[in-house]
Amino acid sequence: MDILALIMRWAHILSAVTAVGGVFFIRFVLMPSAQAALSQEAHESLRAAILKRWQHIVHTCILLFLVSGFYNYLMITRHLHEDQPLYHMLFGIKFLLALAVFTLALMLSSTRSWSSAVRANARFWLAVLAFLAVAVIAMSSVMRALPHTSPSDEAPVTAQSAQQPQEV
User: Fold this and answer.
1) Of 101, 116, 132, 103, which is closest to residue 47 (Cα–Cα)?
2) Nearest partner of 109 among 119, 117, 97, judged by Cα
3) CA–CA distances in Å: residue 45 to residues 67, 126, 159
């Protein structure tokens, strides 16, 4: 068992669970609840406190996504799908969608002025972010279900089968 490959897979999945789950929680639970129960001043104070913490989680998740995603693609999955244009096309689309997800997440979690227009309409952009994240996950599921095409997908050579003489 390749422990590094396992760690990278877990890092990728746990980052997705954390980031996407957080987006759904913020958009569909926290925002409506805070808006209904808090004064405008208290709501803004809560938003500022959440942004400081959420920003660190978003940055960590994006870093883990990129490191684990490149490792998984370059070291594992692309070799299993050689000569399969559909897989590589889907990977390209998924990667571009993921970049859009990262950009929106960074803008929504930023406290800087360059992202204030996006933050001002956070309800809409969080919904867009959630939709894009679900699209990336759906595309990943389709890619995972595609059959492997490379010779490395054949049965592994075991010590016993390597010792047995080949019949001609």
Assistant:
1) 116
2) 119
3) 34, 19, 64
pLDDT tens for 1-35 read 689 999 999 999 999 999 999 999 999 999 999 98
Query: CA 32 from chain center: how many Å?
Result: 25
CA angle 95/92/136 to nearest 5° reads 45
pLDDT tens digits, 27-67: 999 999 998 999 989 988 998 899 889 999 999 999 999 99
Length of the chain, in residues: 168
Cα of 69 vs its chain's centroid, Å:
8
Quote the CA–CA distance of 123 and 119 in Å, as a whole number: 8
Q: Residue 160 pLDDT more than 90? A: no
